[in-house]
Structure formats: structure tokens, C-alpha cells
């Protein structure tokens, strides 16, 4: 067997080894990595910093992968020297490893500008998983963080630190952010977007010194201006790590020079990735490195064929909600270059194409990068744009998204990061019986890096895989291309407090009648009522706290806890019905009284005259607890269901839920108040309560599942509260408990509510209490309307046409 | 001849919160006025489907959604958006002057859906 030594355990090196494994080969492979981690996705480090992913989430090849493929992994071992005549690699431990072929994949190092004070404490680079961990540990809430460098990595690091609670400033030497990828106009759009996230942008600023006594305290710029800093991150660029190649006597200019087969000046030594220089070009982005790996793998296994011819630069910013894409040449000094441009300042969208001799030469997309792959393909294939001239900036509408992927040729690359084509994916699906996205990722690597092709991969699976299992999570609506789970993560992680904020950063800024109420609910729930309430995002019922009827009037249902009322209340209800000419007074199915046909303008005075709280009969919230008379009067009753029901209603009332929540409490298994077909039910037995959940007697009829049987009323109420809060936090908007219980399964729900560890239970109850502490009877807005015309009809200032 | 005499001073801008609508009756016509953030727009208040009060609908960008059955209308043109049947409402010129919303009730316009298709 021939010995292959790979120096570098990063994305490029390991991806290259993966390609070699696909060929017939007789290599005995050893990989050296100076980091102690298995191969991880460096592109996603900023998401680890932001807390959006964990270190485990970004592992690409776990330790098992090395073992399964018979690869020796020497992690945490740095190769110090390569002796080309003896053909051995000498590592820092003094180990000598012989090789027949060697691959240098040493990547790049952070460029550290020679600024006085740069060696102070709390000044860091951001290049490795360990760097990310250090930054996570130091990035405390309120900490003043300064990022030097307004390029891709600097901006991603800035956002990550900000999401950790830091006050972040980005300092950039140039007039334009990401000036290598953007023109001044595009840079200005990006700057506005970054500033709208709450990050300070300082341009152009030349950092002259870092000051502080041992620890950094701040930065001084060439202008003399100073800013404070508790933490400084250097993201001023990268340079190829070519040192090993240089010491070994290989040809090295900026990087280790390779030919079109990725061979260095020594035919037994290859190089791949950011340490290389090919035809004068060095690399800093992942896609061309994957391409290099394929070429190298073919050449080293004596399958010379494909050649690497270089790559058009392409870059994409990975900050959620800030879409930036740039590819090709953005230099417009060439008189033959035509510019095609579109800008919409209020939407923050800027698109610019550089066209030369009817071929795409370069592209800049800010605010909307949805068309990115079309441009990548035009660039790569040098497509004649004549037939596309009318649709350069916006693609012709496709009637069905499925067609988009159907229309692609098999050779088209779906996953740009890993160079996986449509044909490869289809083959893999058929050959390996793939039916989930995770299997597809595992098998082909498609969609496993930046994730921007996930949608396309899913479309392919849907179209081709006979047993495609749709991810259970569903997208909220087309305004916000995220699932409920993702949205909850985003809102929590990004500390978003208003519907418009979520739409501005993650959606299409507009929203619709589907997502706005859903987001309103989500914000209210996640921030326990401490969000920025926006009534315009709510359905009319939740703006005026009554149920709109077919003629535009409203119905009014006062709260009557447990269905118990009094002669006084009934008299007031009768008086109100007379006074306001209520068209119908109706006893509802939920043991309450409904006043139908009330005009919007009369609502506040109707509520005042009733002197009763809102029954929330108009909203996705706590409706009522229906009860029977229990031990109080009934000769069969074994539990005091009336009192238990009233107490349950009191504890949960005025809260919002994913969909309406109707409850019941019965004093014996005869179930007179139908508790077993309620969202939450209490069924009294001699000496115990059964707590049941997920029942329904509406569009569907479903008997509730038993959550738990407990002895005391207090325990029963607590079980109800646990389930109630769990449903609030995990139910999708407009998902009734009977769908929720089936989706989650009662076993899982039990395990995470009533049988959860005490600390977890307490957290659920605490969040419920926090929401409850802020929740108010909505009808009190009669005295303090949220705006002067919440209920009143506008009277024109003049009406000279009457 | 100018249309000046039809401009009716309706209400102070702050009486209609952003992204919400309010109804007002002028000259016997019930109108719905919307605050679109950067400007105001006025349409007839009755949904042509079942007479729902459009002023109570959720507004997104320039589309209002009837609260009764979800019919959607573009506030610029009055045309129904993505409806199963062609439909429209009358739109009225609207402007703001010295913090007051003015509507020209004499110059309502309707784009009949057939026209729009052609």
C-alpha cells in the first residue's frame, strides 16, 4: 500500500480525501490536524458564535468517519517539516511519518495588521472553533465589542457578538463595507441594513493603536478619535498558510503554487484549499476548494482528466435576514462593461449586473439574493444573455415552484458549496433509497454546508423520492420562509420584539393576514407579554375584543367562570340587552350568555354597563371551563368540580393560546359537562382527578387522552397549567390541542410536562406566571383605548356633500 | 374645470393608526380610509362579496383583507387580488394637508375587472 499523508484537517483537505475515497485507490491515509477537533464546517463558525448552532452541529466528519474509512487521524498534532528527499513528514512530537504522496491543505491564517497594542488581552482573531469558544465565553451582555474589518467575516462576527448581547461597532479601513465584493452603492445599502440591526458602523477608520493597561480599553484612530472597547476581534482578512511549503523548498508566491492538476513543484506533493495559489489567484471561499479537491483526487489516483481552471470569485454573507451576494468581477472601469441596475431603497433591495459582450461579467445582490444561482450559472457557463435581456434582474415568473427544479438540466449544480449536481442527487436518491433530507446530506453532502440549496434539495426529493418524508415542520407562509420552530428560535435568539421587526429582517417586510396574527401570538408568548404589541397585525376581533358577525356588528360574551352567574349579573345583562337593542340574547354551548348584534361604537359602554370581564369568546385564547354542579349539589358528585373549574378558569384566563382552548371539569365519570371532549378536562373520581387533554367535539370529535391521575385538586390544576403552557410554547398557531397532541404524541407530552424533572416543570410554571402577571382583562381598554378611534366611528371634519 | 370642491377634510392623520383602516360616512357613502404609513388610501367600505366592513381588515403593504371571508383588494386599483371571481371596489383620491386627511369623494374610480384583464 502507498502511504498518503494529508497535512490539514479542514474542509478542503477532508473533502479532498472524501473524493479520493470515491476512486479506486490503494492508499493508506493519515491526516494531521493541528486543531483537536474532527473536521467541522468553518463557514458556519459565525453561527456558533451567534448561538444559532452548537459546536456539534457543525461537525462534518465525526470520529467514526475516520475509523470507518481506515484513516488515521492525528488530531492536535502539527507537522513542522517536510523532508522531500527522505519523503517524510516530521511532526512537533518528533514523530516521523513516511509518505509516497503528500497533500498540503494547511488553509489560511488570520491576517493580523501591525497595530501597536494588538497583543493586549481581550484582542482575538476569529478563525477556528476554539476562537469561537473564547469569544462566546467573553461576549457578555453589555460588553463593548469592536470588530476591526468590515468584510464578510467581520460582519458575521459582529452580528454573532451582538446576538450574545454585546454592544458592537464595526471599524473598517475603507469607505465601503465588503468593498472587495460590493460597489459603493451596494455597500451603502448593506451599511443601512447592518445599522438597522443595531450595529454601529464606522467608516473609513484607520486604527492607529489599541490602548489599555494590559487589557484592551479602546481604539485610537488616525484622526485622533477614540472609542471604548472591552473586546476586540480582528477580522482584517486571511493569508495563505504556505509556511510548510516554503520550508520544504516548494515554489511559493502568495500561496503554494499549483498547476491545473493541483500538483506543486514536487510531483509527489499536492496542495488544495486556501493555502494554494493557482494561476496567480488565491482563494478564500469554499466552492472552488471543493472543485480543487475533485481534480486533485482524480490526479493523485492516476485518473488525470478533470483540470482546475480557476474560479470566478463568489461570496455570500451569512447573516440571517441580510442577503448579500456577489460574484464575478465588479470592476466597471472597462468601457465594454454595461451596467444593469435596480434599486428600491425602502425595501433595501439593490441589484447590479455587469454585462460584457452580452455575457454576465459580475453581479451584486443586496437585500434579495433569491436569484443567485441563475447568475452563478450564467457566469460559469458564459451564457449568451441575448434571449434573457428582458429578464435580467427578475426571472420570468414560474407558475409552480416545482417547475424550477424540473427545468434544470441534470448537469446543473444544486449545491454550490459541495459541487453536487442535480443528476448526482437523483442518482443517489434512486440508488440508495433516500427519503429524507438528512439522508441526502449524509450521502451526497448536498445542502450540508451553507444550507442555501435546502429548498431545491427538498423539491428534488419530493419529485423523485418515492417515499419522501416531508419534514413535519411546515412553513408559516410565503412572507417568511421559515417553520414555526425556526421562527421561535429566531425571535428568541435575535431578541425580536415586534411583528414588523421580524418581517423586516427575516421576511418580505409586508407580511399578510396569515403570518401577522401568528407572529403576534408568538411574540406575546415568547416574551411573556413583554413584546411590542402591534394591533394592526391582529385580526379585528383582537383589536376591539369582540367577535365580528356577518353584518359587521359584534357579539359580546362576558366571562362567567365555570358557567356560574348571579341574579345581579343576569339583571345587568338584561338591562344591557334592552338599552343597546341587542338583537339576540343567546345561551352558548359553553355555559355563557352571548349578546349578538352590538355596534362597534357601543362596545366600551356595553362592557362598562355589564361590569363583567371579557370572556375572550372572540380570540385564540382561553375560552372557559364548563362545569357540572359536582359535590355541591349533585347526589352522585364525588369531586367539587364547580370550584375546581372556576379556579382553573381564573388561573388561565386572559392568556392567548395557539388556538382557542375550551376546558371542562366534571364531578364524576358521568361527564355531564363533557370534559372528555375538551382541550383540557378534569374528570373527578372518588379520591382523585383524571386530567385529560386533546379532546374535541367540533370539526373533529376526539376523546381526550389521559395526561395523569392525581389525588388533590391542587395537583390537578398544576397538571393543567403544565400542559397549557407546554401547548402555548410548542403548538403551531391555529393548531388545536387535538392536532397538537397527535403530532407530539401523548407519551412525549407527559414526559415533558407532568413527568418532567422538577426544575423543568418549574420553568414552565414560571413562564406561565410571568405571562399571567402581565395579562389583563381586555375590556379594560374601554377606559384606556390603545388609540383615540379604537372603537369610535370617525366623523368627517366637514360634510358639505350631505 | 378643477375638482377642488370635492376634496373633503375628513380627520386628523393620527386618528388612523399606521396599517389600520377606519370607516367614515360622507355624502351618504360609507368609505374606508387606510393609513399605509407613507400615505393614505380610500375605498368604498363594503366588500362586494357579502358586504363585509373592509375598514376592519388586516392591511399588508397595499392590500386589505376582508375580515369576513378573506377577499383581498389592492388599495391602489380597487381590484380583487387572487380572487376566484373578478371583483372590484371604488377607490377615491386621497391626500394629506396640514395633518388632515382629505378625500375627493366626487372622483371615485372603478377599474372593472374585465378591463384589467384586457
Which helices and strands appear, and what pairs or packs with what?
The complex is a heterodimer of chains A (802) and B (118).
Chain A: E1 2-7, H1 11-22, E2 27-33, H2 45-50, H3 63-68, E3 72-75, E4 79-83, E5 88-91, E6 96-98, E7 101-104, E8 108-110, E9 123-125, H4 129-138, E10 144-148, H5 152-163, E11 167-171, H6 184-196, E12 200-202, E13 207-211, E14 218-221, E15 226-228, E16 231-234, E17 238-240, H7 243-247, E18 256-258, E19 269-271, E20 276-278, E21 281-282, H8 286-300, E22 314-316, E23 324-328, E24 337-344, E25 349-356, E26 359-366, H9 372-381, H10 401-406, E27 413-415, E28 420-421, H11 422-432, H12 437-444, H13 454-464, E29 475-477, E30 480-483, H14 484-493, H15 499-506, H16 515-526, H17 540-544, E31 547-548, E32 554-556, H18 567-579, E33 584-587, E34 593-598, H19 603-610, E35 622-627, H20 630-633, H21 641-652, E36 661-666, E37 680-685, E38 688-693, E39 696-697, E40 701-702, E41 705-710, H22 713-730, H23 737-744, H24 746-752, H25 758-774
Parallel strand pairs in A: 1-2, 1-7, 2-3, 7-19, 9-16, 10-11, 10-16, 11-12, 18-20, 35-36, 36-37
Antiparallel strand pairs in A: 4-5, 5-6, 8-17, 13-14, 14-15, 20-21, 22-23, 23-26, 24-25, 25-26, 27-28, 29-30, 31-32, 32-34, 33-34, 37-38, 38-41, 39-40
Chain B: E1 7-12, E2 21-26, E3 29-35, E4 40-44, E5 58-60, E6 63-65, E7 72-74, E8 80-81, E9 91-92, E10 94-97, E11 100-104, H1 113-117
Antiparallel strand pairs in B: 1-11, 2-3, 3-4, 4-9, 5-6, 6-7, 7-8, 10-11
Amino acid at each position: 500500500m502507498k502511504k498518503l499523508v494529508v497535512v490539514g484537517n479542514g474542509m478542503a483537505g477532508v473533502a479532498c480525501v472524501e473524493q479520493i475515497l470515491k476512486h479506486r485507490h490503494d492508499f493508506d491515509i493519515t491526516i494531521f490536524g493541528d486543531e483537536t477537533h474532527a473536521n467541522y464546517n468553518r463557514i458556519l463558525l459565525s453561527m456558533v458564535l451567534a448561538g444559532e448552532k452548537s459546536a456539534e452541529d457543525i461537525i462534518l466528519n465525526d470520529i467514526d468517519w475516520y475509523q470507518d474509512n481506515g484513516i488515521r487521524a492525528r488530531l492536535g498534532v502539527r507537522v513542522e517539516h517536510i523532508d522531500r528527499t527522505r519523503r517524510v513528514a516530521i511532526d512537533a512530537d518528533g514523530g516521523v511519518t513516511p509518505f509516497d504522496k503528500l497533500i498540503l491543505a494547511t488553509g489560511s491564517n488570520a491576517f493580523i495588521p501591525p497595530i501597536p497594542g494588538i497583543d493586549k488581552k481581550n484582542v482575538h482573531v476569529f478563525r477556528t472553533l476554539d476562537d469561537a469558544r473564547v469569544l462566546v465565553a467573553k461576549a457578555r451582555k453589555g460588553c463593548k465589542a469592536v470588530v476591526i474589518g468590515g468584510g464578510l467575516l467581520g460582519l458575521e462576527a459582529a452580528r454573532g457578538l451582538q446576538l450574545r448581547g454585546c454592544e458592537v461597532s464595526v471599524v473598517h479601513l475603507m469607505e465601503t463595507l465588503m468593498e472587495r465584493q460590493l460597489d459603493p452603492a451596494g455597500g451603502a445599502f448593506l451599511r443601512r441594513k447592518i445599522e438597522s440591526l443595531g450595529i454601529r458602523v464606522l467608516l473609513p477608520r484607520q486604527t492607529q493603536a489599541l490602548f489599555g493597561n494590559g487589557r484592551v480599553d479602546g481604539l485610537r484612530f488616525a484622526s485622533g478619535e477614540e472609542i471604548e472597547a472591552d473586546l476586540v476581534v480582528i477580522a482584517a482578512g486571511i493569508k495563505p498558510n504556505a509556511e510548510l511549503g516554503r520550508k520544504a523548498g516548494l515554489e511559493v508566491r502568495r500561496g503554494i503554487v499549483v498547476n491545473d492538476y493541483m500538483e506543486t513543484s514536487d510531483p509527489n506533493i499536492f496542495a488544495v484549499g486556501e493555502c494554494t495559489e493557482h494561476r496567480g489567484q488565491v482563494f478564500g471561499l469554499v466552492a472552488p476548494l471543493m472543485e480543487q479537491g475533485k481534480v486533485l483526487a482524480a490526479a493523485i489516483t492516476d485518473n488525470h482528466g478533470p483540470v482546475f481552471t480557476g474560479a470566478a470569485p463568489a461570496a455570500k454573507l451569512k447573516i440571517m435576514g441580510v442577503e448579500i451576494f456577489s460574484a464575478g468581477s465588479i470592476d466597471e472601469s472597462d468601457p465594454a462593461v454595461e451596467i444593469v441596475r435596480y434599486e428600491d431603497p425602502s425595501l433595501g433591495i439593490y441589484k447590479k449586473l455587469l454585462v460584457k459582450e452580452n455575457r454576465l461579467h459580475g453581479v451584486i445582490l443586496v437585500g434579495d439574493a433569491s436569484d443567485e444561482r441563475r447568475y452563478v450559472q450564467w457566469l460559469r457557463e458564459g451564457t449568451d444573455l441575448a434571449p434573457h435581456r428582458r429578464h435580467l434582474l427578475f426571472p420570468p415568473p414560474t407558475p409552480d415552484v416545482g417547475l424550477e427544479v424540473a427545468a434544470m438540466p441534470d448537469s446543473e449544480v444544486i449545491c454550490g458549496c459541495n459541487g453536487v449536481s442535480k443528476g448526482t442527487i437523483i442518482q443517489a436518491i434512486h440508488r440508495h433509497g433516500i427519503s429524507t433530507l438528512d439522508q441526502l446530506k449524509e450521502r451526497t453532502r448536498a445542502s450540508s454546508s451553507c444550507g442555501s440549496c435546502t429548498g431545491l434539495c427538498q423539491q428534488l426529493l419530493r419529485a423523485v423520492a418515492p417515499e419522501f418524508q416531508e419534514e413535519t415542520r411546515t412553513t408559516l407562509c410565503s412572507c417568511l420562509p421559515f417553520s414555526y420552530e425556526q421562527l421561535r428560535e429566531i425571535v428568541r435568539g435575535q431578541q425580536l420584539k415586534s411583528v414588523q421587526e421580524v418581517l423586516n429582517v427575516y421576511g418580505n417586510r409586508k407580511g399578510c393576514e396569515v403570518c401577522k396574527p401568528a407572529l403576534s401570538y408568538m411574540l406575546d408568548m415568547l416574551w411573556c407579554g413583554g413584546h411590542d404589541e402591534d394591533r394592526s397585525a391582529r385580526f379585528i376581533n383582537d383589536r376591539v375584543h369582540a367577535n365580528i358577525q356577518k353584518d359587521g356588528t359584534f357579539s359580546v360574551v362576558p366571562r362567567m367562570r365555570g358557567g356560574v352567574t348571579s341574579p345581579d349579573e343576569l339583571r345587568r345583562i338584561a338591562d344591557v340587552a334592552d338599552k343597546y337593542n341587542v338583537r339576540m340574547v343567546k345561551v352558548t354551548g359553553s355555559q355563557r350568555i352571548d349578546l349578538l348584534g352590538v355596534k362597534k361604537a357601543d362596545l366600551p359602554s356595553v362592557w362598562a354597563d355589564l361590569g363583567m370581564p371579557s370572556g375572550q369568546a372572540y380570540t385564540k385564547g382561553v375560552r372557559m371551563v364548563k362545569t357540572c354542579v359536582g359535590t355541591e349539589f349533585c347526589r352522585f358528585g364525588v369531586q367539587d368540580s364547580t370550584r375546581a373549574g372556576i379556579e382553573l378558569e381564573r388561573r388561565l384566563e386572559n392568556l392567548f393560546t395557539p388556538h382557542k382552548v375550551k376546558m371542562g371539569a366534571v364531578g364524576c365519570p358521568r361527564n355531564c359537562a363533557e370534559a372528555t371532549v375538551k382541550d383540557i378536562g378534569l374528570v373527578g373520581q372518588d379520591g382523585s382527578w383524571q386530567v385529560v387533554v386533546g379532546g374535541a367535539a367540533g370539526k373533529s370529535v376526539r376523546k381526550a387522552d389521559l395526561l395523569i391521575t392525581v389525588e388533590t385538586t391542587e395537583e390537578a390544576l398544576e397538571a393543567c397549567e403544565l400542559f397549557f403552557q407546554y401547548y402555548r410554547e410548542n403548538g403551531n398557531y391555529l393548531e388545536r390541542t387535538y392536532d397538537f397532541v397527535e403530532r407530539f404524541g401523548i407519551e412525549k407530552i407527559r414526559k415533558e410536562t407532568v413527568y418532567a424533572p422538577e426544575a423543568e416543570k418549574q420553568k414552565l410554571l414560571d413562564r406561565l406566571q410571568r405571562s399571567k402577571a402581565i395579562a389583563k382583562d381586555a375590556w379594560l381598554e374601554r377606559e384606556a383605548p390603545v388609540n383615540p378611534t379604537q372603537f369610535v366611528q370617525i366623523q368627517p371634519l366637514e360634510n358639505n356633500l350631505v | 374645470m378643477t375638482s377642488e370642491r370635492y376634496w373633503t377634510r375628513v380627520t386628523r392623520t393620527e386618528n388612523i393608526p399606521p396599517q389600520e383602516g377606519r370607516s367614515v360616512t360622507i355624502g351618504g357613502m360609507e368609505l374606508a380610509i387606510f393609513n399605509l404609513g407613507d400615505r393614505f388610501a380610500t375605498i368604498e367600505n363594503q366588500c362586494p362579496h357579502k358586504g363585509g366592513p373592509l375598514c376592519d381588515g388586516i392591511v399588508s403593504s397595499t392590500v386589505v383583507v376582508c375580515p369576513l371571508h378573506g377577499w383581498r383588494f389592492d388599495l391602489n386599483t380597487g381590484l380583487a387580488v387572487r380572487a376566484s371571481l373578478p371583483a372590484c371596489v371604488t377607490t377615491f383620491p386621497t391626500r394629506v394637508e396640514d395633518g388632515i386627511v382629505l378625500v375627493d369623494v366626487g372622483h371615485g374610480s372603478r377599474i372593472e375587472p374585465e378591463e384589467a384583464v384586457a
